[in-house]
Amino acid sequence: MGPEVAEFEKNFSDFLGGEVISVASGTDALRLSCLALNIGPGDEVLVPANTFIASILGICELGAQPVPVDVDPKTYLMDLTDADRRINSKTKGIIPVHLYGQTLDMDALMDFAQSHKLFLIEDACQAHGAEWNGKKAGTFAQAGCFSFFPSKNLGAFGDGGAIVVNDYDLAKKLRLLRNYGSTQKYIHEIPGTNSRLDSIQATILRIKLDFLEEWNNRRFRVACQYSEGLKGNVSITSPSFDPSLSKNHVFNLFVVQCEYRDQLQKFLTDRGIQTGIHYPIPIHLHKAFASWGYSEGTCPIAENLSKRILSLPMFPEITDKQINTVINAIKEFKIYE
Fold first, then answer.
1. CATH 3.40.640.10 at 3-209, yes or no
2. Distance CA 52, CA 72 (A)
3. What is the pTM of this model?
4. Are 277 and 311 in contact (CB under 8 A)?
5. CB 118 within 8 A of CB 94
6. So where are the chain's domains?
7. Could you tell me which residues are beta bridge partners of residue 48?
8. What is the band of 334 on the pLDDT scale with cuts at 50, 70, 90?
9. Strand spans (E) along 6-142
């Protein structure tokens, strides 16, 4: 809570175009946003089935019910048509995820939330600097949530997070919640918690913020190189994006689809190429949430994708030689199908 934190909050606020409240992690950003918007027992919140578990933990901790929504097979993002089918009298909000760094259609999402009188929290934890029609991801909704985990486009050297809002009262409440319900030492206005960004992490983030746009541009160029190099490969489906809209997708991850995903992953691993799966189990099928009562078939597109998706190496410093090594290895894989 020192001057380094205040300076980073100001710089990130200027970058995004909204008031930033830093917290200890992206998970806390989502949880405290739900808490500030009075989510609790008996409430239901729509969430995409294909996302990291942190997207829903805050909902669960507050006693509310996450409701999984299927995703678009090309963009991997929340399908609003399916979301509409899952609304009932208990539905209080929606938490879309700008997954892998790609912005959702925020015009459609805002209309959807407003027409159903739902609160809207953007999970922008993988989308630092991404834009929709010139406006930064995370700045459309009542609250936008960011993670500064080291693997993010803007990453600290440890955990960290932030919430961006455009409402004075909500910002005040979040500042109280993150610091024991207090703005003055030993004077507590509401029950709060300890979720503060460390000064050393704030300093690192402030310095790295100056390079974020350059790094995002490099990620986009890498994505274009991958897509061009894998074009025509019948065993691979590259992610769908418009190469003329370099701000809509900042490619925290480059995620392809392959019917022989597990074999391809082993093939690449054997050649020294590390890959990942984001994510191998849709949220509603985790053992941790068996009590929800969902089964296979609830979100068939997300369930099918979980068996096909594979994240290729993606980081700003990756070289053309390394990119071509990955592409050529995937081309060789056709021989082993």
1. yes
2. 17
3. 0.97
4. yes
5. yes
6. 3-209, 212-336
7. 69
8. confident
9. 19-23, 44-48, 65-69, 91-94, 119-123, 131-132, 135-136
